[in-house]
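Let us walk through a complete example step by step. Step one is to write down the protein sequence. Step two is to encode the small molecule, zinc ion, as a SMILES string so that its atoms and bonds are unambiguous. Step three, shown after the inputs, is the structure prediction itself.
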Amino acid sequence: MQNLTKDTEMQVNKVCIMGMLRKADIKITRQRVYLAGILFNLPQGHFTAEELHDETKQGDLKVSLATVYNTLNHFSQNGLIKTLQVDNQKTFFDRNTAHHYHIRSQNKIEDVAAEDVKIALSPSKIPPGKKIKSIDLIINLCDE
Ligand SMILES: [Zn+2]
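Step three: the predicted structure of the complex.
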């Protein structure tokens, strides 16, 4: 009986993932459903391609790191997730696609709601004929 419940939960989850992919206009493939299933069940909202690749090692579908990268970039281009360039060495991916900022302390990245950050930019800094499209902000913390 317990296995039946587990199978049903997995099935609902898979159907949900497939709906998310379709909504983002992403062609359904076994690997994409598999990777999306893992990433939307990760405990943390921000992750690297390497971390997601490590998670696939426990599953039965073998996926190369290059495929994980390509799939994440495709998901990002279609708005399913966001790309987060924290520094020159590491790219994180973010499941939270709503407008928000980040606080980074050591290796931990946490979301900050956009309304909790006030940014003052003099209008004279914006060239004529241009307007702000978006602002990406990562607040890096260190020990006092
Ligand atoms: Zn975030």
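Step four is interpretation. The beta strands are 46-47, 82-85, 91-94, 100-105, 108-113, 138-141.
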